[in-house]
Amino acid sequence: MTPPPGVPARTQVAVLGAGPAGLVLAALLAREGVDCVVLELRSRSHVESRVRAGALEPGTVALLRELGVGERLDATAMVSHQFELRIDGERHVLPVTELSGQPMYVYGQQEVVADLVAHRLAAGHPLLFEAEALAVEGIAGAAPTVRYRYEGVERTLTADVVVGADGFHGVGRRTVAAARVFTRDYPIAWLGLLVDAPPSGRDVVYAFSRSGLGMHSMRSPTLTRLYLQVPATDTFADWPEDRIWAQLHTRLSAEGWSLTEGPVLERAIAPLRAYVSDTMRAGRLFLAGDAAHIVPPTGAKGLNLAVRDVRVLAPALVALLRGDPALADAYTATCLQHVWWAMSFSCGMARLLHASGDPFEDSLRAAELRGLATREPGRRMLAEDYCGVRP
Ligand code: FAD
Ligand code: DHB
Hints:
Blueprint lengths: L9 E7 L3 H12 L4 E4 L4 H4 L7 E2 L1 H9 L4 H6 L1 E3 L2 E5 L2 E5 L1 H5 L3 E3 L2 H14 L4 E2 L2 E7 L7 E6 L2 E12 L6 H5 L5 E15 L8 E5 L5 E7 L2 E9 L9 H12 L11 E14 L3 E2 L2 E3 L5 E2 L7 H20 L4 H4 L1 H23 L5 H16 L1 H12 L4
Parallel strand pairs: 1-2, 1-11, 2-8, 5-13, 11-18
Antiparallel strand pairs: 3-7, 4-7, 5-6, 9-10, 10-11, 12-15, 12-16, 13-14, 14-15, 16-19, 17-18
Helix pairs in contact: 1-6, 1-9, 9-11, 12-13
Bound molecules: flavin-adenine dinucleotide (FAD) and 3,4-dihydroxybenzoic acid (DHB).
């Protein structure tokens, strides 16, 4: 059927998903004069309010600035020169800027998405919300098509290349038959809270305690982000507010630090999972971000990894469209290097920071964390991996 105005039927790159991976890729391609259409399942207000990650590596921030979407970030992001590792109440400050040469930034993922959406729409580039990709077909040929539903009508978008940046549950991952997947399911989930209260300090705090991990982060001078390790089988019914606050106070407790309470604005339970597909491309369909890999959140790497993927993918697609397939052919192998580095850091932190309930195992964890936090090589490694700055 003929597409209505503003709904293209043909493009160079069809991007599924307006998360960080899809939107940063679209911005990188627009800069190179490559046409793309972004299809997003959810509404604009939904993607701009969905509370998720918050810690941005300096490399991610530098790229956002380079793309012209750093203005609001620079005005409102919290620059994080250090974080705190709390081990059974013992406080260890990790001065990341001093040790790695660069700070981290705390700025909500939904703000990054909102900035990229505004930038794309202001330039008049196509981005359809509430457009559900249903299937990707013909990926072995030169003109793959995306079947999608928009305004209640099923439509077709033909492209030179399709990118599945549609997350773990999207059609991209289902369409690429991975040669091998690597998975680890944890018996743990994170209960995440957005609280209407000023942060209890200026630092992100990762607290290992015998009752489980507690985490303190922030979103603005008046909004606190908090996390609790909970069993993967728990539901909100298991976590009434008084239990949440009691556990946060217990797990984050330390001399000279007190937790400020406030009304809970948002809560979510996210299971911890590790997943890597060793195949990020099938013919003319490429995967990026959560569609290809999931890391446990302990390293704050999910969003940053998605950005690393598309930083590799954009020049590969530009070259492919000009007839040179070398970078596209190397795409999976190039990405798997940063994916496994991030996985190693995130799984290592997940193993150390979550309590198991076994006193012997948990004492080993505390001792290992103390060893890392108090000796120079461990401190430097933590700071460099946290910032994504590798020597
Ligand atoms: P996404 O952000 O998931 O974007 C994919 C987009 O595709 C979505 O907008 C989705 O609506 C859209 N989509 C899906 N299916 C279709 C379809 N069929 N057609 C069209 N569009 C589709 N990481 C951290 O580092 N720290 C955290 O605290 C943290 N918290 C998280 C909490 C939750 C609940 C979740 C789900 C993830 C969290 N993450 C966290 C991980 C981090 O947010 C992700 O790694 C990051 O969002 C990856 O970006 P992405 O663009 O690959 O995928
Ligand atoms: C935040 C989330 C993380 O997973 C993390 O490791 C650090 C900070 C946050 O939401 O602010």
